Amino acid sequence: MKKLISLFVILLTISCCNVDDLNTSTQNPVDVYIAGVKNYSATYWKNNQPYLLSGGDGGEANKICVSNNNVHVLGKKTSDNWITVYLHWENGNLTNLNTSFNTPAQHVHSITDMEVVGNDVYFVGYTKNPLIAAEIYELVYWKNGVKTVLDNNINNPTFQAKIKVVTNNVYVIGYTSSCFNSCHGIYVNNVFQSFSVGVLSKDITVKENQVYVYGTITTTNTGFYKNMATGVETTLTTIPSVYKLLFDNNNTYVADGVNIFKNNTQIYSSSFFSFYIDFIALNNNVYILKREGDFGTFDALYVNDVNVFQIFVDQGKFNSLTVVQN
């Protein structure tokens, strides 16, 4: 019994860490933001402090961006008629994206990504004509609510289209209907550039304003990343797929969906009792969200291998994070 009480005290202490714990093992102070769920409501945390989002009951926060000290959260929930409703909060102020973006001719099918640059807010996703039964969708993005159609004849809206904006150039990973063999690629300022057959890109990252796409070469089961400006492609023969790519100082971080590597050296490996949800590398510090315990009993934030914050699954969960240098 004494052992159980001691374990509870330890876990409670970990769960109630304050902001100082976040910066104990880092050289420079940061603000750490997590998007997720608390008490069955969309929530974000700033430095372990929860902020329940208005109108987020029964929903979840999936992505968080911070720009010009404004906090943007993308989330979703299921309505009473089983339609997925996509939600955006700016500094806690809610916008129903379905309501804002729906027109009589096109309804929001899904919002798959968000990007914030300065005061400009971008969303990418799919819309569909509600009066047509055929599975035909538009691949679109919105900048400050203004819609741009990239392709109006997409028949597979399951791909999670991604968006990145760099030096006023808009990059969107997705598919085109105007193709013969190479239907997957990237739109650069609305112009489609196809990838080679067998190349499946998962997302986009940036290093010193250089845009990189990354993913897997399905024909060889090989991970890759490619500099879009130079055309230089790096293949990773020991990694079958790149799920996340980050550059920090002179270091390259790659996650394959199970493991995380720094300069080709494994720094984290998922297991039955621990697997990563998301991670960030900034100024030589590594922040990892993990689901841990028997059958995933709690989610935790680790900073340089130190558990600084956690939540039990009966109270909520973590979905993604971002870190802002002060």
Q: Can you walk me through this structure?
A:
The chain has a domain at 195-269: Thrombin, subunit H (Beta Barrel). It has 3 helices and 28 strands. The protein has helices at residues 2-15, 19-23, 97-101, and strands at 30-38, 41-46, 49-57, 60-67, 70-78, 84-90, 93-96, 107-117, 120-128, 137-143, 146-154, 162-166, 169-175, 184-188, 191-194, 199-207, 210-217, 222-227, 233-236, 244-248, 251-255, 259-262, 265-269, 274-282, 285-292, 298-303, 306-312, 316-325. It has a 4-stranded antiparallel beta sheet. A hairpin with a 2-residue loop joins strand 16 (199-207) and strand 17. Residues 1-19 have low confidence and may be disordered.
Write the layout of secondary structure elements.
Layout: H1 2-15, H2 19-23, E1 30-38, E2 41-46, E3 49-57, E4 60-67, E5 70-78, E6 84-90, E7 93-96, H3 97-101, E8 107-117, E9 120-128, E10 137-143, E11 146-154, E12 162-166, E13 169-175, E14 184-188, E15 191-194, E16 199-207, E17 210-217, E18 222-227, E19 233-236, E20 244-248, E21 251-255, E22 259-262, E23 265-269, E24 274-282, E25 285-292, E26 298-303, E27 306-312, E28 316-325
Largest sheet: 4 strands, antiparallel
Spans of at least 5 consecutive residues with low confidence: 1-19
N-end to C-end Cα span: 44 Å
Spatial strand order of the main sheet: 3-2-1-28
Q: Which structural class do you get from the secondary structure elements?
A: mainly beta
Top CATH class of the domain at 195-269: Mainly Beta
Could you give the count of β-strands?
28
What Rg is obtained from the alpha carbons, in whole angstroms?
A: 20 Å
